[in-house]
Specification:
CATH class of the largest domain: Alpha Beta
Number of strands: 14
Bound molecules: nicotinamide-adenine-dinucleotide, serine
Strand content: 5-15%
Radius of gyration: 19 Å
Number of helices: 12
Helix content: 40-55%
CATH architecture of the largest domain: 3-Layer(aba) Sandwich
Largest sheet: 6 strands, parallel
CATH superfamily of the largest domain: NAD(P)-binding Rossmann-like Domain
Order of helices and strands: EHEHEHEHHEEHEEEHEEHEEHEHHH
Length: 321
């Protein structure tokens, strides 16, 4: 039975919302947030335990695990694609050594469950880009992608070799309005909404026709919690579930925003992130997730746009952004 959950990288885009969702289910004191950064985020601040933890420090991670009798870990700490291409050795160190520390600490203590996200970055330019299959070519050309494929393989190895319960899902680009993304290639899909509200225009670092799979945060939380709570005996896959919601390019996103802000303008100035985006799929086949743990998203582009503009618009009116 899951009693105490440690969340690493909890101050990031996903962690800052997932911790609260986990606390609603498992109880505030049973979910220990942790991050290398000292700040916990406004909503996390008063909501439960927080530890400053660098995941590359195995000794400190073990001390925190033992202090709280942690028996499950949601491992979110990572360096994302764009920062990873600027600092590949940092991406290797945090993503690989942080992950092996989590797996080894879990193995030594025979933990109940581990969840580690993978990414569409596990795919590469030789992967089929339309409706990318669950089982396919995994030859990424970014350091971030290389660490994600390694994580999937390591996760499945620990399941097969040591009998650990490890789960993981290949998130598409995640779009949210609580915490800004931490340096990925899909970050434009968040920035565009903030700039639409603040300035009525946006300069995009990807080309207008760059199609990528995306997902709104409520669906990301649902997917993560559904997989985390799924019956292990019904899972045929473990560390690498494809999950999809919708696919979009910057032009389509601008058109969606114009349905609510007709004067919105977009310009394009592609940078180094274009090459990363071009190596990723256009759309995802998530049949395995649908069959094995009933995955089903709720938001499409326009329903997400309406909600994003409402929430960010309210923040702007209050002077919070
Ligand atoms: P993020 O960059 O917003 O947050 C990552 C957090 O990790 C940050 O708060 C950062 O301070 C922390 N961190 C970095 N180095 C650390 C270290 N050495 N020790 C401890 N903490 C450290 O990332 P996110 O978007 O919340 O991503 C969470 C997970 O989901 C990652 O594994 C990421 O690869 C994966 N993912 C995210 C997306 C997305 O679009 N957000 C898409 C695919 C996969
Ligand atoms: N959103 C992530 C990134 O762009 C995908 O893993 O890096």
């Amino acid at each position: 039975m899951i009693e105490k959950i440690l969340v690493t990288g909890s101050s990031g885009q996903i962690g800052s919302e997932l911790v609260l969702a986990l606390r609603n289910i498992y109880g505030t004191d049973n979910v220990i947030a942790s991050d290398k950064c000292a700040h916990t985020g406004i909503k996390l601040a008063d909501s439960g335990p927080f530890e400053q933890l660098d995941v590359t420090d195995r000794k400190h991670m073990a001390e925190i695990v033992d202090k709280y009798n942690v028996n499950a870990i949601v491992h979110l700490a990572a360096i994302l694609s764009a920062v990873g291409e600027k600092k590949p050795m940092l991406a290797w160190d945090v993503n690989i050594n942080g992950m092996i520390n989590v797996f080894e600490i879990a193995r030594e203590r025979k933990m109940e469950r581990i969840l580690v996200p993978s990414s569409i970055a596990a795919f590469g330019p030789s992967t089929p880009i339309i409706n990318t299959p669950q089982e396919t070519i995994l030859r990424p050309t970014t350091m971030y992608g290389i660490t994600k494929v390694t994580g999937e393989l390591l996760g499945d190895y620990y399941v097969a070799k040591f009998g650990l319960d490890i789960r993981g899902l290949r998130y598409p680009g995640i779009i949210s309005n609580e915490t800004l993304p931490g340096g990925g290639t899909t970050d434009y899909a968040v920035a565009i909404y903030y700039d639409a509200i603040k300035y009525g225009k946006y300069e995009c670092f990807l080309k207008e026709d760059t199609m990528l799979p995306m997902m709104y945060m409520p669906d990301c939380l649902k997917a993560t919690l559904d997989l985390f709570q799924a019956d292990f005996n019904k899972l045929k896959h473990h560390s690498d579930f494809n999950v999809g919601a919708f696919s979009v390019n910057p032009k389509m996103m601008a058109e969606s925003i114009r349905k609510f802000i007709p004067s919105f303008e977009i310009t394009y100035k592609p940078d180094f992130r274009q090459e990363i985006a071009d190596s990723w799929p256009n759309s995802i086949d998530d049949t395995a997730a649908r069959e094995e743990w009933n995955w089903s998203p709720s938001y499409d582009l326009d329903t997400m746009t309406e909600d994003m503009l409402k929430v960010i618009g309210e923040k702007h009116k209050k002077g919070l952004i």
